[in-house]
TrEMBL record, chains A, B, C, D:
Residues 155-215 form the Transglutaminase-like domain. SMART domains: TGc. It comes from the Bacteria. It comes from Niastella koreensis. InterPro entries: Bact_transglu_N_2, Papain-like_cys_pep_sf, Transglutaminase-like. PANTHER family: BLL5557 PROTEIN, BLR5614 PROTEIN-RELATED. SUPFAM superfamilies: Cysteine proteinases. This is Transglutaminase. Gene3D superfamilies: 2.60.40.2250, 3.10.620.30.
Length: 276, 276, 276, 276
């Protein structure tokens, strides 16, 4: 499917600095980027699974970024009804680093907690479905309840947060069960209020399967921007120097028609795997 | 009932300092205290619900403390089968401070967690029984798994600890449900291996009711040493200056005969309340 | 000196509950308290060094509290220029509990940090002056930078906070140096913007000496409301049930004339000790 | 230079599982690996800057690994005496991810702390020298004082730790100053007692420069095993299933002759950069 996505961002540079933006989808058909003032010469580059824009800001002033793209959203359905046991030694070595604990996903501290809640479930897809259902049921979606310092270790007990916190907790719980998991920053269809969104992927039987414990947007309406270990790797904007965010306006529409929204439920056996 | 309790403690003072011991039961019939070297003149005093011994150590050397006491253990049984709803405004004001979060019992961070697990239970005695059962089932008793810095906030997710950690978690969960709770340092009958022990009390319907989520020793075999907000208030020994613990030998026996051990179980409706 | 202090507080009770207020000065000459609706029958009581008002709220609705008092502010000056070494064993036992770590003052984790920065200073008054100067220099006073969960352990590294955080850090650093310290909730003269304020007291040579690392208000212009281990003990309002703060309006004026403001500076040798 | 390094490791598998070892130097001339029992067929693979061995363990029992290698240690000296100011926008994009906070290096929480201590230093090499000197002076090297959960955020205040903690703190402080930094796991010449060692690299003027705040081993005697964001990425052994470490015996010798040990000191202007 094709989606039209856009991000209008305004920053105020109080001094010279650098702005690193992570807003371009991974699969773009066409795109336009306007930067005001036009004197800013950005550089774009890949860093792992991020398509970054680096904007050196040489003097104080307001910076307006207007980005539009037509992007592809492609995925497969994977049937996990007969998923057999998994083994570390049969995993693709490139995914093993997604078992490591990271800044916001301290899976190393959650081994017993996770084992008690989910250790008895055999099918790993069902395990991750149970994890997202547990988060959805126990964690309250509450804007402003957390900060950029909040991590899965906080959210598991404080039980309030936003999409970023839901994703971090899902990732941490998966890793604690030896399921590789990574963070996804996305444009999301039908998200209310419209904004950037975060969800996560778990490595199941050779596929990165998408999950979203917030259930705020359909799983088949994401346009992926970047993937990484957690939000530390996939920040929408990294600000070096005194550059202050002023406003954000994000949109994501289907190019034509509407989509039939897909969500998982307890008992779901079919997963969605986005094509990279 | 009468119990004979004893504590043989050895410290090595590498320099002058002060040793504050908190080993005397609250209800003593008779006691003996030997301190070697005899030149140490201790002072004893009350501080809230602690009977402290302050030993100024004027020079380096080994310090041997040998304490024996015959102590009373007196309690009532309280029937909670028809316990009605409780209200903050009807509580004795003196217990309200036991609702405050403390160093090792960060109840303020556990409100949602606690509400999700125990909020639906109406009878408050049943609530605390459920809390101790949840701790007993989910937290592994594992010597050496925690340090003096470990708090309830750690234990709730890491799910391993010793008696002190079990008590801290019980207290934190009670306070998060608006049930006043305090830490008890005790001599425990039949504890294996023999050592000082920790449990907690919850304020229910006008009584301090004893609970022990470790289930390692009978509830009716405790000789109370001190009560406080948490282990920070009730340390067996506070060491000021370089005074290093060398060895500890603790015992607790019934003066005559044996006791019929009492434990709570899911469904218990009778609580034990120690007489102060 | 006499001060006129007032607190106008508005809450919205979404359901029945209990409101425990801690707004009455410890040394009141006269006072008036208006509660609207008048059907709320409050109870007042002492809890340690807090003069609490307990208001049972039986039904939903807005609650307006209007409190005015004429209060005494009395203190002595203590000269510490020749302060000799202090010893735990010569302290009044009743102050030893203010050496214990507490919810927001984890002094047990700061022993080496404190020793490295302040261990070389011999005069204990000078030590605490150095602590407050260090906090004043290194921690940024930044409204909104912290939450009710922020503790001294956070502030020592994150180095931003409000009066409460400054006080917690001062207390934690004192206790780590074996200096008893406690939290003070006060009305403050000349505080901009007017609000409740927090500072701390350290036990030096038999006196509770007042300190304020924010330097936002004169040390001789405080009207003490309550003292305790930290903010957990001295909350202006404890809200049980869904009672939501709406607005706060605090004032503190000298009854007649103005005061000559007193602050400490590096090199100060005279401390202020409030008379209880 | 050539070094002979060896690692003899014994594990006890209580059940089937997988052992992932990260013990092979990055620049090996020749090597031998003996695994007992011989039925274990390992797979070796690269994952970023790690040369991993994956050993699937199919049944319980003791596993003995005996690894020997002749490895190269090659480095350049880089003169930083005239180092000009650095700019994010001129950095190689591939190093920017080493500015992100990670599991054990929460640089995002240390911005003010770091700015206060090191912000005034202009030359970035001098900055990192100052960071390592500060760590060396303030943090006590104390075996057993920390656990696998300890992070830079703990060490900065608790000020005790082992090589891993020293490296984590160095990395976190660099990143907080916008200097990319990464963790190095190494064999170290002349380390007492012999063991695996950890240090860190900072990205300065286009070079990864090696630093070691422990000063326990010469900077020119390292044989690099792996680099990563922190210890989470570079674990010597990742154990999946109940596989328990039994013993470790590590050695590192120069193939011929001895080395003239190199350390940095306050005022040093020449850095070492290992050739990858």
């Amino acid at each position: 499917m094709e989606f039209n996505v856009s991000a209008d961002l305004v920053y105020n540079a109080e001094e010279a600095g650098t702005l690193v933006l992570n807003i371009r989808p991974l699969k773009v058909i066409k795109e336009t980027l306007l930067i005001d003032p036009r004197t800013i010469n950005y550089v774009d580059y890949f860093s792992d699974m991020n398509r970054l824009l680096m904007l050196p800001v040489s003097e104080p002033g307001e910076i307006r970024i207007s980005y539009n793209a037509t992007a592809l959203n492609e995925f497969n359905y994977v049937d996990f009804s007969n998923l057999g046991p998994s083994s570390i030694s049969q995993m693709d070595p490139s995914v093993l680093l997604y078992l490591n604990p990271s800044r916001y996903c301290q899976s190393d501290k959650l081994l017993r907690f996770t084992m008690h809640l989910f250790g008895h479930i055999e099918n790993e897809f069902e395990k991750v479905i149970s994890i997202t259902e547990w988060i959805y049921t126990n964690v309250e979606y509450l804007s402003g309840s957390t900060t950029s310092g909040t991590s899965a270790y906080d959210t598991i007990t404080e039980q309030a947060g936003v999409c970023r916190d839901f994703a971090h907790l899902g990732i941490a719980l998966c890793r604690a069960l030896d399921i590789p998991a990574r963070y996804c920053s996305v444009y999301a269809y039908n998200l209310e209020p419209a904004d950037f969104h975060a969800c996560f992927e778990a490595w199941l039987s050779g596929h990165w399967i998408i999950f979203d414990a917030t259930k705020l947007a359909p799983l088949n309406g994401f346009v992926k921007i970047s993937m990484g270990r957690d939000a530390a790797d996939t920040s929408i904007a990294n600000l070096f120097g005194k550059i202050i965010p002023q406003s954000t306006n994000i949109n994501s529409y289907k190019s034509q028609g509407v989509i039939e929204p897909v969500f998982y439920y307890p008992g779901s056996t079919i997963g969605l795997s986005y094509i990279e």
